[in-house]
């Protein structure tokens, strides 16, 4: 308690921190040291100006001197300084006569003088005028001559420009230098130093493996790397070697950087963390220099871990730069990185972790064994992993009893860990906006809709004819998806505008690892249902199917040219998974094959469009009922389709998904509002 009182009574610094590199302690205003120096300099200049001018003589002219001062014999002496101007000294008993002139001047002269000054022009002219003014009088004042030099001014004008240039260069290099190990004092000299943040035993990271939900296989491999460093003898006693590096590969938001943070939190060894872009600088050779400095520091602190996030910034395959023949600084940095990772020198005890979502563009030399011995794939979470991730992000939230983690996991297929964190945060914001005491299940469903489709625009002006077109379009998608075996079952359809879309449909896709030709064709037919409905009902088509046509065109070309699902083209694939031919100027097939691919794509799309027309014509009554209900309610759910068309006959998980959700809750509006990562959207 006494210590607390002493801390409270301790006087605070009224000027805050004077060190520009330190954070303010919160006990005083945030003053930068340079502001203090600037204020002191300004005060010094003002004081110097005041004192340097407070005893200065009053400016006058020869006419005033001749007619007043010489005529009244008030001048004691005249001193010509540097043959340029004359200083007039008035007799002490005559100073009162000139008090009015002194009082009107800011720089009042001292009693000893000089009291007045004026420019004389040439010395000969001044002497002649002075003689003429004193002729015929017994009063004579002879001029004195004096040389004065302003040493401060001369020095300032001589070295001032050089000092200014030096200060300007110092400021430029200081601005260009970064913080951390490469910045700080003497930035120009540290520009080639490593920018890595060092987490040592004294500076622990709070994240650990318990905070990483899901990713069981990836987490196991990373945990093993930590064990290598903690007890290497366990793995080397049989002759094995500690792996030199591991590359985390996966889509954005899947937790690659989070895994690296967990390694930093778990490992009892120094951890160097930096981004691939930290090696890149405007100066030639800086990237390679920073790589050398990074590994030099790492060797000194071995055993340790070096983590490079977004390594594709410097690890792109060499020879693929469009600037042919140029000396690419990025390639020089990559060459140095390759040398340091597995060159002539050994980096014993230094393990490299790297993360990227662009493994296809990395240089093959970087991927070989001996550099990155392991490639750890961090994929999108499955159903169970999404539930575990929800449990992590739901901890800080105040939840209602209606929230079910298993239900939320089912509503978010294709979501990454970052997306799930965003859903939880958005649900909390929606609940707060509605002044609720806890976050409800409906808030989570609204958050999913908000993230996928955007905000509802209920005030958007849409004509009745457009609204009818949108309703039949969306009803066409919903009808075909419900009646085809392999199409994704519909969850929700709305004609309320969201974001840039005038209408949207949510589906619950089946989570599968491979896709058959029949499944792709059913999905294509379902996507064409909107365009087919417009042609049947209105006899004309609109631009609303743009998104659908774009999707099926890409899908059809993939089926023919990548998946080998065309009999005429055959079992060939023109896709280069290595990514080595990004900058080639020729197609990997002939013009004849290109024409054949175009024909096969058109045949596929036309066949599914005819099929969509047939399904809608065979179920015209149900399609009309669904569209009318959509016009009436603006939002319909899967149970509306079940009421009109009956239950889906296929006994699959996708076919009974709606019934499973109905068993979770009896509230129609809440439970039927699920999500789809492959939403069908009508674009205006």
UniProtKB/TrEMBL annotation:
Could you say which residues bind ATP here? 250-257
Tell me yes or no: is Glycoprotein among this UniProt entry's keywords. Answer: no
Q: What is its main location?
A: membrane
User: Where is the segment annotated Disordered?
Assistant: 1-23, 655-684
Extract one GO molecular function annotation from the record.
Answer: ATP-dependent peptidase activity
- The AAA+ ATPase domain covers which part of the protein? 242-382
Query: CDD domains attached here?
Result: RecA-like_FtsH (cd19501)
Protein name (Swiss-Prot/TrEMBL): ATP-dependent zinc metalloprotease FtsH
Q: Which organism is it from?
A: Maribellus comscasis
């Amino acid at each position: 308690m006494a210590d607390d009182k002493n801390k409270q009574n301790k006087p605070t610094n009224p000027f805050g921190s004077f060190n520009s590199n330190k954070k303010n302690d919160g006990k005083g205003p945030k003053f930068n040291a340079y502001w203090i120096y600037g204020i002191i300099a300004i005060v010094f200049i003002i004081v110097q100006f005041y004192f340097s001018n407070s005893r200065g003589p009053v400016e006058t002219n020869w006419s005033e001197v001749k007619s007043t001062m010489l005529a009244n014999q008030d001048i004691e002496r005249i001193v010509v300084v540097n043959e340029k101007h004359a200083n007039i000294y008035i007799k002490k008993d005559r100073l009162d006569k000139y008090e009015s002139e002194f009082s009107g001047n800011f720089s009042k002269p001292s009693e000893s003088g000089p009291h007045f000054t004026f420019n004389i022009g040439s010395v000969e002219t001044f002497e002649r005028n002075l003689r003429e003014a004193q002729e015929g009088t017994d009063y004579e004042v002879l001029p004195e001559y004096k040389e004065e030099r302003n040493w401060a001014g001369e020095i300032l004008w001589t070295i001032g420009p050089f000092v200014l240039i030096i200060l300007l260069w110092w400021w430029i290099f200081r601005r260009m230098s970064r913080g951390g190990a490469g910045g700080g004092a003497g930035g120009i000299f540290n520009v080639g130093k490593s920018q890595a943040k060092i987490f040592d035993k004294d500076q622990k990271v709070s994240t650990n493996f318990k905070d990483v939900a899901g990713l069981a296989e990836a987490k196991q491999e990373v945990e093993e790397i930590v064990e290598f460093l903690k007890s290497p003898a366990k793995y080397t006693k049989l002759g094995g070697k500690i792996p030199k590096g591991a590359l985390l590969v996966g889509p954005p938001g899947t937790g690659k950087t989070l895994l690296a943070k967990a390694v930093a939190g778990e490992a009892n060894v120094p951890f160097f963390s930096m981004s691939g872009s930290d090696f890149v600088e405007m100066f030639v050779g800086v990237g390679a220099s920073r790589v050398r400095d990074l590994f030099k520091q790492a060797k000194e602190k071995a055993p340790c871990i070096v983590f490079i996030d977004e390594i594709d910034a410097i690890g792109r395959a060499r020879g693929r730069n469009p600037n042919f023949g140029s000396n690419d600084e990025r390639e020089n940095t990559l060459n140095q990185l390759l040398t340091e990772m597995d060159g002539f020198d050994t980096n014993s005890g230094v393990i490299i972790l790297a993360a990227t979502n662009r493994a296809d563009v990395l240089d093959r030399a970087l991927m070989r064994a001996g550099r990155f011995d392991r490639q750890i794939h961090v994929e999108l979470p499955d159903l169970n992993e999404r539930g575990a991730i929800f449990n992590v992000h739901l901890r800080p939230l105040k939840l209602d009893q209606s929230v079910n983690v298993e239900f939320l996991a089912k509503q978010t297929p294709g979501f990454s860990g970052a997306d799930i964190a965003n859903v939880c945060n958005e649900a909390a914001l929606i609940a707060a906006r509605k002044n609720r005491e806890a976050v409800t299940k409906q808030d989570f469903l609204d958050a999913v809709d908000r993230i996928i489709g955007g905000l509802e625009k209920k005030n958007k002006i849409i004509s009745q004819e457009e609204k009818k077109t949108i309703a039949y379009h969306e009803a066409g998608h919903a009808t075909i998806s419900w009646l085809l075996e392999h199409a994704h079952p519909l969850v929700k359809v709305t004609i309320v505008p969201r974001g840039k879309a005038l209408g949207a449909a949510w589906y619950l896709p089946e989570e599968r690892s491979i896709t058959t030709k029949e499944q792709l064709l059913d999905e294509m037919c379902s996507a064409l249902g909107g365009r087919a409905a417009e042609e049947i009902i209105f006899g004309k088509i609109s631009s609303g199917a743009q998104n659908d046509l774009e999707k099926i065109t890409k899908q059809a070309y993939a089926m023919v040219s990548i998946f080998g699902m065309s009999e005429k083209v055959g079992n060939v694939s023109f896709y280069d998974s290595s990514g080595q031919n990004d900058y080639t100027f020729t197609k990997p097939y002939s013009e004849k094959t290109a024409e054949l691919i175009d024909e096969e794509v058109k045949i596929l799309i036309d066949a599914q469009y005819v099929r969509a027309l047939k399904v809608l014509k065979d179920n015209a009554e149900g399609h009309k009922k669904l569209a009318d209900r959509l016009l009436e309610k603006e939002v319909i759910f899967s149970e509306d389709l079940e009421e009109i068309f009956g239950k889906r006959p296929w006994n699959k998980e996708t076919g009974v998904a709606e019934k499973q959700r109905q068993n979770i809750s009896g509230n129609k509006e809440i439970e039927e509002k699920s999500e789809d990562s492959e939403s069908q959207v009508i674009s205006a």
